[in-house]
Amino acid sequence: MQRFQSFYEVGNCSGSYNFVQGKMWLNNNNGGGRGRRMDGGDENDESACAVGPATAAAEAKANKSHSEAERRRRKRINGHLATLRTLLPTTIKTDKASLLTEAVRCVRELKKATAELAAAISPETTADSVETPASFTTFPSEADELKLSYTGDDDDTRAGNVRAAICCEDRPEIMPELARALKSVEGTVVRAEMSTVGGRIKIALWLRVEGLGKGGDEAALAAVKLALKEVVDRPAATVGSGNHLPGGPGNKRPRLLM
């Protein structure tokens, strides 16, 4: 028979109860196997306690990462709002709701203006039923191009009307070159539109060409095309020198449309 300690050997009442509970648990399990203790504890409590600090560190790291991502998101949004404040013409109220409302209103106005401009440059038909292409806009493209369109002739003279669009690299000498080219084919500028964006230039010309004749003489049109093509193909001068760069950067293959 197993001998139990006396009250004085064990200590107080709670200590005696815990001591007895531990002895009974050991006797029931015979010193081996897994089980639960009489006091409701689990023998895996020590391993759970060991995993606890690692889990807490992982949660802290995840929370920090989330906070950093949220901070970057707010910084990016504030940067976009600051850009909007500089772009909008009228920003009386600078709060986010008023700013977004004003931005939506400006975008709608720009869309309406774009639609009106697109309607204004829609294809036109002359008295001789010669259609003028709608692509004669004054916005430069990335490719060099030359477009010609015969738009009719004068009743009293042998002159014919031609609409031309030129797009190429911008350079200081392009205007004198155009003047010489038009003079060589006896062309007179009736109307001109021009725009430059990012080192590119596009010029729309309404010309009156002598000797073009009724219906547009093919030889005269070919001469106009050749003269303008030389202007488009000519590369820009090298910076700091008077030489030209044949085939230099930006001298793209022109597109000729009649």
From TrEMBL:
<feature type="region of interest" description="Disordered">
    <location>
        <begin position="35"/>
        <end position="76"/>
    </location>
</feature>
<feature type="domain" description="BHLH">
    <location>
        <begin position="61"/>
        <end position="110"/>
    </location>
</feature>
<protein>
    <recommendedName>
        <fullName>BHLH domain-containing protein</fullName>
    </recommendedName>
</protein>
<dbReference type="GO" id="GO:0005634">
    <property type="term" value="C:nucleus"/>
</dbReference>
<dbReference type="GO" id="GO:0046983">
    <property type="term" value="F:protein dimerization activity"/>
</dbReference>
<keyword id="KW-0238">DNA-binding</keyword>
<keyword id="KW-0539">Nucleus</keyword>
<dbReference type="GO" id="GO:0003677">
    <property type="term" value="F:DNA binding"/>
</dbReference>
<dbReference type="InterPro" id="IPR011598">
    <property type="entry name" value="bHLH_dom"/>
</dbReference>
<keyword id="KW-0805">Transcription regulation</keyword>
<dbReference type="GO" id="GO:0003700">
    <property type="term" value="F:DNA-binding transcription factor activity"/>
</dbReference>
<dbReference type="InterPro" id="IPR036638">
    <property type="entry name" value="HLH_DNA-bd_sf"/>
</dbReference>
<feature type="compositionally biased region" description="Basic and acidic residues">
    <location>
        <begin position="61"/>
        <end position="71"/>
    </location>
</feature>
<dbReference type="InterPro" id="IPR045847">
    <property type="entry name" value="AIG1-like"/>
</dbReference>
<keyword id="KW-0804">Transcription</keyword>
<feature type="compositionally biased region" description="Low complexity">
    <location>
        <begin position="47"/>
        <end position="60"/>
    </location>
</feature>
<dbReference type="Pfam" id="PF00010">
    <property type="entry name" value="HLH"/>
</dbReference>
<feature type="region of interest" description="Disordered">
    <location>
        <begin position="237"/>
        <end position="258"/>
    </location>
</feature>
